[in-house]
Amino acid sequence: MTYFNQEQIKYEGPYSSNPLSFKYFNPEEVINGKTMAEHLKFSVAYWHTFTEDLSDPFGVGTAKRNWDHLDGMDRAKARVEAIFELLEILNVEYFCFHDVDIAPEGKDLKESNENLDEIVALIKQKMDETGKKLLWNTANNFSHERFVHGAASSSNAEVFAYAAAKVKKQLDIANELNASSYVFWGGREGYESLLNTDMKLELDNLARFFKMAKDYANEIGFEGQFLIEPKPKEPTSHQYDFDVASGHAFLQKYGLENDFKFNIEANHATLAGHSFQHELRYARDNNMLGSVDANQGHPLLGWDTDEFPTDVYETTMAMYEILKNDGLGKGGLNFDAKPRRTSFEQEDLILTHIAGMDAFALGLRVANKMIEDEFFEALVSEKYKTYAEGIGKKIVDGTTNFKELEEYALDNSEVENRSDHLELVKSQINQYILTVNRGV
Question: Which residues of the chain are under the pLDDT cut of 70?
């Protein structure tokens, strides 16, 4: 059965009026030695694309999908057919999933695993036929009521064990499907109130969980990259993986920093009070940038709206960090994004991905040009030039002390600062965005 009845989307250039075409994403175009497809390892998110019904806290789902008349395992099998069809239509190589996305939970863990085995066999068959790849998978240890107090950080040891069993199963699946990475998102790893929380025990247990997961991955020979996806709040009042910096500190405390990197989501960054670029930069500076959930939040709303990325300024700054990181290694750009509730037709699944892919293609071209021109490098070099010689160089080299610095300050009491001309910088970035892609 054909679920979309759509031929593969082609690149037609920025002046095409065909909504079912790429205006900027040209997969075969070579930029700095790599094709655009190699730079932009796009991935379709199984959950938002195939299980999301577009409901919200104030209304029922509006999504119209031609597999929704099916139930249980029949619907799960139809979704496998549909996602591989969509991957081909979009010319996307990768996909991602949670366990409950691909197969319904059974009456107990044994039946849930049996359901997974049946669907994974079908997915593996489709992967072998098409050459599509699994970017990463993960366990949903947050939706079911059993995780009301968390999973690895739960106050209930029985829940900890259940969560471990689910992750073990997903690591087996990751190994079977040759996943590039495995993601841990602590959906309920946090607390509602400190009044009745042993935070130290919960964090210690979370670290124990991660160590056991890594030990098991080593035991079965899984070579994918382990990733942590930070998020500050929602659904808990405070989540332990608040942002990249706090997550990095956690990993360093427990000696896990060599085993994990970060899967950074744009919308989670803004919920933490940071820019997307800030989170990417911190991770890059500390060799912890592993993968990206490519979406955006709504600037007027304070929750996780998971919109498809269309802000070219944001995608440009993101691609700058990714290019300076020499790519994402085993990671990629996963569209953890959903159509708006008012974009409910099945065709919107295609149109939204086109919009996101074009936005990152635009950002890639602009970021690459700025790197070629050493635009930011020149700005930073000028701003910090006093550290390149004299007393500044001694500070950087660690060859001075407070006594010498006091003597220097007494002899140079007139400090002269220079303007950053920040507004000029931003206007120059706008100029790049508006000119680099002209005429492609």
Answer: 439-440
Nearest of 314, 425, 304 to residue 363 by alpha carbon: 314
**What angle do the packed helices 347-372 and 312-324 form, to 10 degrees?**
60
Across the chain, how many H-helices and E-strands are there?
16, 12
- Tokens coding 118: 């049946």
* Cis, peptide link before residue 57, omega less than 30° from 0: no
Catalytic residue among 39, 48, 99, 101: 101
The letter for the amino acid at 189 is E
Residue 310 CB neighbour total at 10 angstroms: 14
99 belongs to the catalytic site: no
Tokens 């100029």 sit at which residue?
431
> CA 131 to CA 126: how far, in whole Å?
8
3-state percent breakdown (helix, strand, coil) of the chain, nearest 5: 50, 10, 40
pLDDT at 1: 77
Contacts of 31 (CB under 8 A, 6+ apart): 39, 364, 365, 368
Nearest Cα to Cα of residue 230 among 279, 158, 165, 197: 279
Give yes or no: 204 in active site.
no
Cβ burial of 385 (10 Å; 0-12, 13-18, 19+) is exposed
Q: Identify the burial level of 246 via C-beta atoms within 10 angstroms of its C-beta, where 0-12 means exposed, 13-18 middle and 19 or more buried.
A: middle
Contact 62, 345 (CB under 8 A): no
Residue 20 in contact with residue 361, Cβ under 8 Å?
A: no
Q: Would strands 94-98 and 133-138 be described as parallel, antiparallel, or unpaired?
A: parallel
- The catalytic residue among 48, 98, 268, 274 is 98
For residue range 266-315, list pLDDT tens digits in order: 999 999 999 999 999 999 999 999 999 999 999 899 889 999 999 999 99
| Spatial distance between the Cα atoms of 179 and 433, rounded to a whole number of angstroms | 35
pLDDT number for residue 52? 94
